[in-house]
Design brief:
Elements (H helix, E strand, L loop, with lengths): L27 E5 L5 E5 L6 E3 L2 H17 L3 H9 L6
Antiparallel strand pairs: 1-2, 2-3
């Protein structure tokens, strides 16, 4: 069984042909604390930041939404992974 088949895992693959996508400029991670505070951790070569200002976090949430729309659906992604050797 692929780990991507687990109920608590959602995998979306970005097609190799998508030369320009929403996360191309730098990686980021979105968090929500147990107190419902939303944060964005943004990585850059010389500077990484943890953002808590709502406006800044919202920009990364919007970018994440665009990124998900550009990627294969979870079902398409799983189908692709099932054709690949090895386990994820």
């Amino acid at each position: 069984m692929l780990r991507a088949q687990l109920r608590n895992v959602v995998v979306q693959v970005m097609p190799a042909g998508c030369a320009e996508h929403a996360a191309l400029d730098r990686p980021f991670t979105l968090y929500e604390t147990h107190k419902a505070q939303r944060l964005a951790y943004v990585e850059a070569r010389d500077d990484s930041r943890l953002l808590g200002e709502r406006r800044s976090v919202r920009e990364y949430e919007e970018q994440y939404g665009i990124l998900r729309a550009q990627a294969l659906t979870p079902r398409e992604s799983l189908g692709l992974l099932e054709k690949m050797p090895g386990e994820l």
